[in-house]
Amino acid sequence: MRFLLTTFLAKTCFVIVCTLIGMTFIFFSNIYGQNEPRADQLDPSAITISMKRDGFPCGYVPVNEKDLNGCPAYSIIITGDGTVTYEGVSSVKTRGKRIFTIPAEQVKELLADFERVKFFELQDRYTEKRLPDGSVSTIDHSNGTTITLKVGNKTKSVYNFYGAPEALNALQKKLDDISKHLQR
What is the CA angle 115-121-124, rounded to 5? Predict the structure, then answer.
């Protein structure tokens, strides 16, 4: 009798533990989007990458509209098929709207970069830097930038002023380089 009771309890505990593990897996896979298609598996029309450089507050006021010494203010929108819409505002060589294309493979590389930085898990804003000693460093002059990724029904925006992880800064530079020929 004791053996049967012990066996029954062991089997019951095993079933409960397996059920809890399965539920935990389902819970975390839903949180981290494992049940959703990856960006490179979606229709290109379901993908939009955008970046907006504010141009302020960078500590420099342009003298006139041709002055390129200030922080550039412009935006780019990249769709999954490689269409890039650029709009220059100030401190850029090209003002106004321009449309050009980049290879679809370059868009896939950008999406892989977004996955590598775990973009959807980043903070919404970076405006200060936490130092190793626990103190906080701030600045009052930089070019604020908002990066947005839309993949299917999921959208995330991150404002980067100061203190972002280096991986996000590297991604921002890649986005910046796409329209560099129109900026300076």
Answer: 120
Please give the CATH number for the structural domain made up of 39-183.
3.30.1560
Cα–Cα dist 168/116, whole Å? 10
Dig out the tokens for 100 from the structure: 């050009």
What gap in Å lies between CA 79 and CA 83, rounded to an integer? 5
Res. 86: pLDDT tops 60: yes
The pTM is what?
A: 0.70
**Amino acid type, 144:** G
d(CA 170, CA 183): 18
The pLDDT tens digits of the residues spanning 165-180 come to 999 999 999 999 998 8
Candidates 98, 59, 92; CA nearest to 76 is 98
Tell me the pairing of strands 136-137 and 129-130. antiparallel
Whole-number Å distance between alpha carbons of 74 and 54:
7
Residue spans per domain, the chain: 1-35, 39-183
